């Protein structure tokens, strides 16, 4: 479905897409049943808070669509036509100029508050070096976990689960939770008893699904996960030994 009209050429080929199933970014499974669409497939409806991730695979000459959050039955599938991190005024002007419609997505209907939240996400730091430094602190500082959970809430509020900032936030939460799990197993007093220690497997599963939906191969994802776990183990070991 597409709620916006635009001028199409009479020479355009027929557009057909059949959706029997669609993956969900928070679905508890190891594989993603993404759906291949032909290059002639119709455009999704526009939203600056899209509910799908689109991935072009040259090997099959097809566009693969995966849901980036829970999509209720009958809900229209959406994608972004312009960078969702542009100011809303720029996005709306570009959409009007190119596609001849006024975007009425939640972000564009509340531009001031939405732009502020998106700027906060855009300016957020996501370096692994910061995470390692946090893991090695004795005791670890509490602000990184709180800040990362705040970023996750902002991503979800803005409907930006399709964007790389979501993957970065999930990676940090996965590593933080893994660290807390290690501390709990070692009976450390500083952060080991934090309730977030039980979230490691959940964040790991969500991040794996997101990475696969964005084109990563399963073998590569699992290799990266092992490297991330090893990074946290080394950081904790150095903290315990004072190295």
Automatic annotation (TrEMBL):
Protein name: SET domain-containing protein
Originating species: Pleurotus eryngii (Boletus of the steppes)
Signal sequence coordinates: none
PANTHER family in alphabetical order: SET DOMAIN-CONTAINING PROTEIN 5
SUPFAM superfamilies, A to Z: SET domain (SSF82199)
Top-level lineage group: Eukaryota
InterPro entries linked to this entry: SET_dom_sf, SET_domain_protein
